Amino acid sequence: MQMDERHEGSVLIVSPKEQALDAYAAPGFRERLSECIAQGHHRIVLDLSDVDFLDSTGLGAIVSSFKRLDGRGTMIICNAREMVLDVFRLTRMDRVFAIAPSLERALEIAADRAA
Q: CATH number for the 3-110 domain, one of 3.40.50.10440, 3.30.750.24, 1.20.1630.10, 3.40.50.10470?
């Protein structure tokens, strides 16, 4: 699983570099996010701009990573394409996750939640 990771202040920005977050990519994605959370990163922005396809396994990896935060942090989704947003809407996960249209807006939400 190819991912870029960078910091913006105390926020970790994770950008999967795969077109599909599916059964093939999800295990590596989940494992890497778990490592990041174990290292103390509790404010995470997932930039899904390169992801064209999200299946239930990929969504499960995102949800399980969010659960690992155990209420001690936040995870914000940004730059999701329409097909990916449809998965969040159909599963009603758009009610669980903050979903921002841009990285800039996601960082604003992360700053508001830290206050």
A: 3.30.750.24
The angle at the Cα of 95, spanning 93 to 75, to the nearest 5 degrees, equals: 75
- Within 13 Å and on the Cβ side, how many CA atoms surround 10? 12
pLDDT tens sequence for the chain (115 residues) = 899 999 999 999 999 999 999 999 999 999 999 999 999 999 999 999 999 999 999 999 999 999 999 889 999 999 999 999 999 999 999 999 999 999 999 999 999 887 5
Q: How many residues does the chain have?
A: 115
Q: pTM for this one? A: 0.94
Give the start-to-end residue ranges of the domains of the chain.
Answer: 3-110
Whose CA is closest to 62, among 52, 71, 75? Answer: 75
Query: What is the rounded distance in angstroms from the CA atom of residue 23 to the CA atom of residue 37?
Result: 22
